[in-house]
């Protein structure tokens, strides 16, 4: 029990100070029939070395040593060593939510820097200090739009990440927010603008799109914003691949950006923890969920930072609350901040490498079939339709220690069994791309 | 303040901690902290590929060298208080030691880089982690089924109440209201509202516990559930919990337990044994995953068999050949509450904690947490008012009643604790105690650290008596003094803006008319 800092004699002495005979006296208010009289059925106590061996054995059962072309909302990017150096510091890792700002300026200033960089990159005026992830962030953004507009419906592009749409369905259902999905143009893989226009009604609070979308293609944000705004609806843009912001124009025409920042230095980690964030126009500040770090001064006039506008928050408003977000993703936001500080303006060069790798992969791998949605620009993902089913193709690739693209039939049955979503990042090598193309030939 | 009493902190003294500007103020064009690998495919013309969508300007992103970045964040870190520096007596927050082996195993290759869409045949290791953790949490809670998907405690509450709603809907009527004691966490009523329920407040009795008579009066066929924190927010075990469960069940309502305070129960008492139908756990509290300055958390939801059909998809399952799989075919599911499977990195850390402790360690942990809280109570109840005399579990709630006579409030004494080298206790909670001082030491504190806290609080009580101005203007030794939160909220400054470049003024030579 190496984490417990009391000796047996400490315990004895403390019990005596309390005036208790034994530890059981302290549990006397628990009715006897509910006290557990056996050991818990959990793994036995392990030594530190055994704990490590245990997890190494788990890791060995996974895809160790495979090349991977998976993206679809979770992206492999190089993580500069500095990120873990910083977040491993106990003062960041083991600190609490900064409710006592005098002794939490490190976290607060870093969050303020995070908010600033998110604003610069997304073209929005304000940003919160993180949400759970991109999927819940998008759902919260829709609820926010309903509050802002006083309208009630959401029009959602089918090219938004399918799991994000599922999460939105769960949230929207109990807020009685009707949700309409709009199809894509089969030539471009982008939102069908005519269908979008027809889907927006007088009661539409917002249009939710993703760009680059689930197929990797970049939406015409300006045109979509025009259509939404003409009918009095807000435009929410979800961004799942944040590195795209290094080379793709920010969605400045949007009213709200609901982003997943995992690409900025957060491990893929089997889907979490990630870092959602909501950024928006300043006029929507009072309806924005989540925590905010704000600048102020102390009694001596020195610059400092505090969590601010907590009057919007659940612990003040209780049942009047419009969101129940409490713990957010502060440490993950710090990872993002370090990543963005290391790359800085160099985010452009990083994004260009992604663009080049994906372009080469689309040309090379696409040679054995076709690449869909060629009529629109894309970032680092593409939809490949091979001559055999994705399942067969992927099985052959696994033999060569390659994890192929994500089969799309489950989410988009109309694309058939041969379509899959491929991603290449700066970590994908030419040799891996060539090897995958060779197997699929 | 003359020669009035000024206490002497034994734990802390002022130390050098360096000034540091915002990262943007340190940036200069052309500096770089990165170098990419050489591009091994042909370079592309971004403008040609992206057309109108190409970005030309990134805005004011910082440009610095690696050493400057290391110093920046290291200096910022020295401005934070943290568990690694000492005790956080924050009630209901369970700030305990974070074992470092947890961090190491969470970063192992094969776990940290596992992709959520990689084939199941290559994911057996990650799925096994989820399985062993799930099984452990089920035995700890005494429940039947679990989802690890919720991203935080409040997200777990949301999921749990969705299960309640789906259960009642399956019986033909979702019901209308959720009962919430006035002592509840603020997230509880917010959650009920977000799931579309009316909140009905339930008054606590003189002991700070659920008033059974009041409960009996309020529960009816429209009640979907009671959301109960047990041990309660004043650190007291609801000793008539079985009666509470019976009253609810008799009317077809369910008992939801907020598991934020499970650190008082693990290995000693199981909620499933005393009638709880559904509950969430906070892995970042009870199971020692680090708080990280405010997240990430993880809020698994455990439930009884009757609620299992409604769990979010996917659900972890075992195939006939013994391999693990994710089951999406759940027609009665409430749907998804988050993309993929939850904060997997936190599952690793929580399981590493369970492995490091084992059944004997988990039980001893609970006993030590309760011992520590009672020790603080015994050593402080002669100087601070104790509004509820009921036996304490893992935390104790005092009030500022004795000190308020001199104008010293709970918040002031909390701020003064910073000068003594501690984080403040919880000051704004629970709402049923005016001027609450809510203290939860956890098992991680040695007798020596507890004695330092006791000594600090006793000195502060004396300062409040003999030198109240000193306490009312605390903290005095921190890097910054009290911050102006009112201005921060009235005129929000939420991002840095580059100062407007000063332009050279040129003399106006045009004819003047004045």
UniProtKB/TrEMBL annotation, chain A:
Q: Which residues form a coiled coil?
A: none
Key words, A-Z = Oxidoreductase
Per UniProt, residues of the Glycine cleavage system P-protein N-terminal domain are 1-437
Gene behind this protein = gcvPA
The protein's role, per its UniProt record: The glycine cleavage system catalyzes the degradation of glycine. The P protein binds the alpha-amino group of glycine through its pyridoxal phosphate cofactor; CO(2) is released and the remaining methylamine moiety is then transferred to the lipoamide cofactor of the H protein.
Give the UniProt family note: Belongs to the GcvP family. N-terminal subunit subfamily.
Q: EC number(s)?
A: 1.4.4.2
Which superkingdom does the taxonomy of this entry point to? Answer: Bacteria
MF annotations from Gene Ontology:
glycine dehydrogenase (decarboxylating) activity
Q: Which Gene3D superfamilies match?
A: Aspartate Aminotransferase, domain 1 (3.90.1150.10), Type I PLP-dependent aspartate aminotransferase-like (Major domain) (3.40.640.10)
What protein does this entry describe?
A: Probable glycine dehydrogenase (decarboxylating) subunit 1
Which catalytic reaction applies to this protein? Answer: N(6)-[(R)-lipoyl]-L-lysyl-[glycine-cleavage complex H protein] + glycine + H(+) = N(6)-[(R)-S(8)-aminomethyldihydrolipoyl]-L-lysyl-[glycine-cleavage complex H protein] + CO2
Example of a GO biological process term: nucleoside metabolic process
Record-linked CDD domains: GDC-P
One family name in Pfam for this protein: GDC-P
Subunit? The glycine cleavage system is composed of four proteins: P, T, L and H. In this organism, the P 'protein' is a heterodimer of two subunits.
Kindly give the InterPro entries that the UniProt entry links to this protein: GcvPA, GDC-P_N, GDC_P, PyrdxlP-dep_Trfase, PyrdxlP-dep_Trfase_major, PyrdxlP-dep_Trfase_small
Automatic annotation (TrEMBL), chain B:
The record's catalysed reaction(s) read: N(6)-[(R)-lipoyl]-L-lysyl-[glycine-cleavage complex H protein] + glycine + H(+) = N(6)-[(R)-S(8)-aminomethyldihydrolipoyl]-L-lysyl-[glycine-cleavage complex H protein] + CO2
User: Which residue ranges does the record assign to the Glycine dehydrogenase C-terminal domain?
Assistant: 366-466
UniProt domain Aminotransferase class V: residue ranges: 167-292
Q: Output a single Gene Ontology CC term carried by this record.
A: glycine cleavage complex
What are its cofactors? pyridoxal 5'-phosphate
Q: Which SUPFAM superfamilies match?
A: PLP-dependent transferases (SSF53383)
N6-(pyridoxal phosphate)lysine: residues carrying this PTM: 285
Enzyme Commission number(s) of this protein: 1.4.4.2
Give the record's keywords alphabetically: Oxidoreductase, Pyridoxal phosphate
Pfam families membership: Aminotran_5, GcvP2_C
Q: Does the keyword Oxidoreductase apply?
A: yes
Molecular-function GO term, any one: glycine dehydrogenase (decarboxylating) activity
Q: Which GO terms describe its biological process?
A: glycine decarboxylation via glycine cleavage system
Q: Which InterPro entries match?
A: Aminotrans_V_dom, GcvPB, GDC-P_C, GDC_P, PyrdxlP-dep_Trfase, PyrdxlP-dep_Trfase_major, PyrdxlP-dep_Trfase_small
Under NCBIfam families, the record lists: PRK04366.1 (NF003346)
Subunit field text: The glycine cleavage system is composed of four proteins: P, T, L and H. In this organism, the P 'protein' is a heterodimer of two subunits.
Name the job this protein performs: The glycine cleavage system catalyzes the degradation of glycine. The P protein binds the alpha-amino group of glycine through its pyridoxal phosphate cofactor; CO(2) is released and the remaining methylamine moiety is then transferred to the lipoamide cofactor of the H protein.
Q: What family does this belong to?
A: Belongs to the GcvP family. C-terminal subunit subfamily.
The protein here is known as Probable glycine dehydrogenase (decarboxylating) subunit 2
Species of origin: Terriglobus albidus
Taxonomic lineage from the root: Bacteria, Pseudomonadati, Acidobacteriota, Terriglobia, Terriglobales
> Gene symbol?
gcvPB
């Amino acid at each position: 029990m190496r984490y417990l800092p009391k000796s047996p004699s400490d315990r004895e002495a403390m019990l005596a100070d309390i005036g208790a005979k034994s530890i059981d006296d302290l549990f006397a208010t628990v009715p006897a029939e509910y006290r557990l009289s056996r050991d818990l059925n959990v793994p036995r106590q392990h030594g530190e070395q055994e704990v490590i061996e245990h997890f190494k054995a788990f890791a060995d059962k996974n895809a160790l040593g495979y090349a991977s072309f998976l993206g679809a909302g979770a992206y492999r990017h190089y993580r500069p060593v500095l990120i873990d150096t910083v977040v491993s510091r106990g003062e960041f890792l083991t600190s609490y939510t900064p409710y006592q700002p005098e002794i939490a300026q490190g976290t607060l200033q870093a969050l303020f820097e995070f908010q600033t960089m998110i604003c610069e990159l997304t073209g929005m005026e304000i940003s919160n200090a993180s949400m759970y992830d991109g999927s819940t962030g998008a759902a919260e953004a829709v609820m926010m739009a309903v509050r802002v507009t006083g309208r009630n419906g959401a029009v959602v592009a089918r090219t938004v990440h399918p799991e994000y749409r599922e999460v939105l369905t769960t949230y929207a259902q109990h807020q009685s927010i009707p949700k309409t999905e709009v199809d894509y143009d089969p030539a471009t893989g982008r939102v069908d603008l005519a269908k979008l226009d027809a889907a927006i009604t007088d009661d539409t609070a917002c249009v939710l799109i993703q760009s680059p979308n689930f197929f990797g293609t970049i939406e015409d944000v300006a045109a979509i914003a025009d259509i939404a705004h003409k009918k009095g609806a807000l435009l929410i843009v979800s961004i799942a691949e944040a590195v795209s912001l290094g080379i793709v124009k920010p969605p400045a025409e949007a009213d709200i950006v609901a982003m997943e920042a995992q690409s900025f230095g957060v491990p893929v980690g089997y889907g979490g923890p990630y870092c959602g964030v909501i950024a928006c126009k300043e006029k929507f500040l009072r309806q924005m969920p989540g925590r905010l770090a704000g600048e102020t001064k102390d009694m001596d006039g020195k610059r400092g930072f505090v969590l601010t506008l907590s009057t919007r928050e659940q612990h003040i408003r209780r049942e009047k609350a419009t969101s129940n977000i409490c713990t957010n993703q502060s440490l993950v936001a710090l990872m993002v901040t370090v990543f963005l500080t290391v790359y800085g303006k160099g985010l452009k060069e990083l994004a260009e490498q992604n663009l080049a790798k994906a372009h080469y992969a689309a040309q090379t791998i696409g040679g054995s079939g076709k690449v869909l949605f060629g009529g629109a620009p894309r970032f680092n993902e593409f939809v490949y339709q091979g001559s055999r089913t994705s399942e067969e193709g992927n099985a052959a690739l696994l033999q060569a220690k390659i994890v192929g693209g994500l089969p799309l039939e489950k989410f988009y049955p109309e694309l058939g069994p041969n379509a899959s979503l491929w991603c290449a990042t700066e970590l994908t090598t030419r040799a891996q791309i060539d090897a995958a193309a060779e197997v699929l030939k | 303040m003359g020669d009035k009493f000024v206490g002497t902190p034994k734990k802390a003294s002022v130390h050098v901690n360096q000034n540091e500007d915002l990262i943007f103020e340190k940036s200069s064009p052309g500096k770089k902290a990165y170098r990419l690998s050489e591009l091994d495919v042909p370079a592309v013309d971004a403008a040609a590929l992206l057309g109108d969508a190409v970005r030309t300007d990134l805005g004011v992103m910082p440009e610095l060298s690696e050493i400057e970045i290391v110093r920046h964040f290291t200096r910022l870190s020295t401005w934070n208080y943290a568990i690694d520096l000492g005790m956080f007596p924050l009630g209901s927050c369970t700030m305990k030691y974070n074992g470092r082996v947890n961090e190491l195993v969470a970063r192992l290759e094969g776990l940290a880089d596992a992709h959520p869409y990689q084939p199941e045949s290559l994911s057996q290791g990650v799925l096994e982690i989820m399985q062993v953790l799930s099984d452990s949490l089920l035995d700890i809670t005494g429940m039947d089924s679990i989802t690890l998907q919720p991203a935080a405690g409040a997200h777990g509450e949301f999921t749990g109440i969705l299960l309640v709603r789906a259960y009642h809907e399956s019986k033909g009527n979702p019901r209308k209201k959720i009962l919430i004691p006035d002592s509840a966490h603020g997230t509880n009523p917010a959650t009920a509202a977000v799931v579309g329920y009316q909140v009905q407040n339930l008054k606590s009795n003189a002991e700070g516990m659920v008033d059974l008579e009041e409960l009996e009066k309020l529960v009816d066929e429209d009640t979907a559930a009671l959301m109960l924190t047990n041990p309660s927010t004043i650190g007291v075990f609801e000793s008539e919990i079985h009666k509470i469960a019976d009253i609810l069940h008799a009317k077809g309502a369910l008992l939801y337990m907020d598991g934020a305070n499970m650190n008082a129960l693990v290995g000693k008492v199981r909620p499933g044994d005393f009638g709880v139908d559904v509950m969430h756990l906070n892995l970042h509290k009870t199971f020692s995953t680090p708080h990280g300055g405010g997240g990430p958390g993880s809020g698994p939801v455990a439930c009884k068999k009757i609620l299992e059909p409604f769990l979010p998809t996917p659900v972890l399952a075992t195939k006939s050949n013994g391999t693990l799989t994710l089951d999406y075919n759940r027609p009665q599911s409430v749907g998804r509450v988050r993309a993929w499977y939850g904060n997997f990195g936190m599952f690793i850390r929580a399981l590493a904690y369970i492995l490091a402790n084992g059944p004997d360690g988990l039980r001893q942990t609970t006993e030590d947490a309760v011992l520590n809280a009672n020790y603080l109570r015994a050593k402080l109840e002669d100087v601070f008012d104790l509004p509820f005399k009921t036996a304490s579990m893992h935390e104790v709630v005092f009030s500022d009643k004795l000190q308020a006579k001199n104008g010293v409030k709970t918040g002031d004494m909390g701020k003064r604790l910073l000068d003594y080298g501690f984080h403040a206790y919880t000051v704004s909670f629970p709402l049923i105690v005016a001027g609450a001082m809510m203290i939860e030491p956890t098992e991680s504190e040695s007798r020596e650290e507890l004695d330092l806290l006791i000594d600090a609080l006793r000195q502060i009580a004396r300062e409040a008596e003999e030198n109240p101005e000193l306490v009312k203007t605390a903290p005095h030794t921190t890097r910054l003094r009290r911050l102006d939160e009112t201005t921060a909220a009235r005129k929000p400054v939420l991002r840095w803006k580059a100062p407007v470049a000063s332009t050279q003024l040129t003399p106006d030579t045009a004819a003047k008319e004045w």
